[in-house]
Amino acid sequence: MTKTINLLDCTLRDGGYINDWNFGLNTTRDIIIKLVNSNIDLVEVGFLRNCEYDINKSLFNNCKEIENVLPIDRKNTKFVAMAMHNAYDINKLEPYDGKTIEFIRVTFHDYDIQEGLEFVKKVKDKGYKVYCNPINIMGYSDEQILKLISQINKIKPYAFSIVDTFGSMKLRDLIRIYSLYEHNLDKNIAIGIHLHENLSMAFYLAQYFIENANPQRKYSCDASLLGMGRVPGNLCIELIVDYMNSTGLGNYNINSIFDAIDEHIVKLKKINPWGYNITFSLSAKYNLHRNYAEFLLNKGKLNSKQINQILAKIAPNKKNCF
């Protein structure tokens, strides 16, 4: 049976918001080796970004730099990087040669869709498999989603993702958005999902997503080691791996994942912890950019009720950008 659901580990990219992507070269390499040994399908090694290259950070200008962190024996794992279309010069990207990453995930906002899609085309023309990751899909109306899907169907990227940027998605929202994708997106385009833990819903929503997968389509589900990511974090890959194994949908080596967590991630969480936080649950409640929550937390003397009252007053046209 052809495998239709892949797991994508985004620790080195999304988790980098915790430590400014400064994992250290040896740690980065060891995390990747352990993920490869766990049979994880896709490993996101970091961001493609206009930056001053630092060998200890998971930020890269090109694939030549990415090659430094990849193992010789890659088994069946494929490698991924993410690029924000307005933060990366596409001229730095080499044509795909099969030696480093195979996939590039491109992000864009609802106010710069056309620029984002033009960037997607350029990446695809260089030979890479491209994910389109629209930021904050919860901020789109059904009509806007359908219009975007129509454009995606013409470009034909590898995948189109459901990205719950502000962690505000509930089951009814996923059912609605998932249905729009499933019934209108070209069947040859995979569907990805990226969930955050503001409402402690990520594992629950991921199970629904997987259990309702159409066997005629490909899917991918993002997660990170111990849920590492900006507070409150992401879907825990150790949980979704165990679920996939228990349902017969995966054959992952969870012990290798535990090794990566115990040897590298636990210590990072002690330094700069992530996890459920009521203020970020309130920002998700109103589908607000997380920076509103961070700003109010830094005020120091506001209680939860006061924060709730303040966030409730944010105008709809100011929700996406702080």
Which terms summarize this structure?
alpha/beta, eight-stranded parallel beta barrel, 9 strands, 322 residues, globular, 15% strand
- From the alpha carbons, calculate the radius of gyration and give it in angstroms: 19 Å
- How are the strands ordered across the major sheet? 1-2-4-5-6-7-8-9
Distance between the termini: 47 Å
Strand content: 5-15%
What oligomeric state best describes the polypeptide chains here? single chain
Q: Please count the helical segments.
A: 13
Task: Compute the number of strand runs.
Answer: 9
How would a crystallographer describe the biggest sheet?
A: 8 strands, parallel, barrel
Can you tell me the residue ranges where pLDDT is under 50 for at least 5 consecutive residues? none
The helix-strand sequence is EHHHEEHEEHEHEHEHEHHHHH
Q: What is the global morphology?
A: globular
Helix fraction, binned, reads 40-55%
Average pLDDT works out at: 95
SSE class: alpha/beta
